[in-house]
Structures are given as C-alpha cells and as structure tokens.
Amino acid sequence: MIPFNRASFHGNERSYMEQAITNGSISGNGAFTRKAEAALSELHNGAAALLTTSCTHALEMSARLLDLQPGDEIIVPSYTFVSTASAFMWNGARPVFADSRPDTLNIDPEDVARLITSRTKAICIVHYAGVGADPRVFADLAAHHGVRLIEDNAHGLGGSHNGQTLGTFGAMSTLSFHETKNLTCGEGGALIINDPSLVERAEILREKGTNRAKFLRGQVDKYTWVDIGSSWVMSDMLAAILTAQLERFDEIQVQRLHLWNRYQAELAEWAERSDVMLPQIPDESSQTAHMFHLRFGTLDRRDAFIAHMRDRGVQTVFHYQALHESPVGLSLRQDHACAVASNASHTLVRLPLFYDLSESDQQTVIDAAIAFPAESGNSGKS
User: Fold this and answer.
1) Gap between the Cα atoms of 123 and 137, Å rounded
2) Do 37 and 142 reside in the same domain of the chain?
3) Which of 61, 78, 158, 285 is spaced 20 to 30 A from 332 at the CA atom?
4) Rounded CA gap, 33 and 176, in Å?
C-alpha cells in the first residue's frame, strides 16, 4: 500500500538527538530550541519565534495573549481543523464560522466582513494547503475594525503572498510540526510573534506563568510565578529533530513542489474530462506544496474514488469536516450558512504527497487515478 504520508528523516535528526542526550538537558529551552527558534525567526523576517508542544497550544497561547473574555467573538473558517476554533473557547470566547472561497477554500474575506460586530475581538485565518488566504486584505480589514489578526499557518511555512512571507501579516501566527506537515518532529508547533509588545508575556505564559525565560538569559537571579500560564515548552529532544529538518528545508520544499507539479500536469486532462477540480493557485501566491487535493462533484463520487484507489494499493484520505456542522458547532446555534465549507467536506480527497514518494510510486498513484471511470453519460466539463 502506498501511504498517504510518511515522515522523512535523512539528515542529522538522529545525531542531534544523541547530542541532546549527551548535553544532559533534554527539557525545553536548550541548545537545539535556540537553534530552531533562530531559524524560524529568520524565516519570518526576524519576528520572535517560540517553540511549543503543538500548533494547538500555540493557538491557545495566542488566545491568552488576546485576553479574551466571555461574550467576545473571534471569526474563524468553518473549513479548518478543530483547534482553530477550540483554542479560543477556553476563556469563554465564541467562535463565529465564516465560509470559504470556492477556488482556494481559504476563508472568504467578504463573508468575514459581514460577520464583524462590536463583539468581534479577532480574526483567525488559515492558509489552506499552504496557499495564502489573501492576508493583506484581512490585515487591512482587521486594522479598519480595530481587531487582531492571527494566522493559523500550519500548512504554510515558507509560502508567500505578493512576495511577503505567510505568517508575518498578523499580530501572531502559528505553525505545526505534526508528522503530516512538510517539516516534522512528530508533534510540535511554534508561535510567531510579529507584535513585539506581546513577546515578554508570551514567554511567561509558555513557562507555566513564570519568568523563567528571563532567568535562563541571566536577566534575573531567580524566577517566580508572575501570571497564569501552562506547560507549552517543546522538549529539546524534539527541537533537535526539528533543527535537522530546518537544515533541509529548501531541499524538502524543492522535492515536494516537484511532486505537486507532476500531479498537476499529469492529471489535468483526466480532471477536465472527469469533472474533477484540481487545486487553484492564485498568481500572487507562492504555495508550499503541503497537499495535493481533488474535488469531485458529489460525496458518492469522492467515496467511490477512495475505494477505487484503495483497491489499487493507494491510500487517499478526505480532509476537514465543516465545523459549523459538528456537534459543538451546532451547539453554538449560528444562523449562518457555510455552503462552500460543507461542499468541500463532502467532495475533497487528498493524494499521497511526501518527500520520499518515489517516481514509480507516484506514477502508480497517477495511473490509478486516471483509471477511475467517469460517470455514465458524462462527457466532460461544459
């Protein structure tokens, strides 16, 4: 079976882990943490980078930094992972779900503009599949209404929009290093802070509410409890793996883009003939090849394709289920349709895409996809 994803470790991951053990300090804020954070800062124009135990925890940190209160609202896409919404509910804030654009599946700025009220405190956008969600429009919209912009950039490390790096438009952005991401350390994330006024408190929140970060830098002779926080610091063992992955970042991206472009080129004719929608990349977006997805006309066709590929030894998977239709989403009683998000939940499927996917295995995937029969009587797109 050709898997949907497989993590790649071909650099210094093992030797760096051994170094971390030899150094005798495998908890957070060690030597590899500093190296990885410096590399991430450089990728984000010098913004502060704080490694976290997950992207979810980075989002939770961003929520705490906003000082959200019960009754506050934050606008999020319905078509996203649950963390984009749940992270902001711990302090009593209410997520408000916006629909997606039909081309990129990114959050729709026109829909967001309609949803802003006096209760709105922030907008959280997701750069779906590593394609920029028109972040300049959202940055201007947030500034106009006096609310904060957060970028959930779990898919978009290294991407850009009109030449500006994704993750540098909002007050904060978050990253994921889960095993399904372009770079991975198994589980992990990062909070990128573009607003310098938030950095000191972010360090405190991440260190269980203490000023330990100042102590480690020699700025205080002891550390103490100064705020409400949690344990969101990544182990230096995982940071060692991430450091090795960051060293190979350009190499990994080149290979993933090669695989992505091959799918796009070799499936184009079949997709046109079969009424299947391939990814849409706006001219202003430099995408990250995080995923290659197909969209079918119906749920039945999508599910039939998954079964067809499985029978031919290829694992394909669907993606998000629209949050406004989930049990928690329904409990929020939002009277606002997100039709594009609902449709994507029922029609989208992702193909295998990972660094070690061989040319021959990718050809197997392509051949299997092209062999999927068109619907009876279907003569192609009109």
Assistant:
1) 12
2) yes
3) 61
4) 15
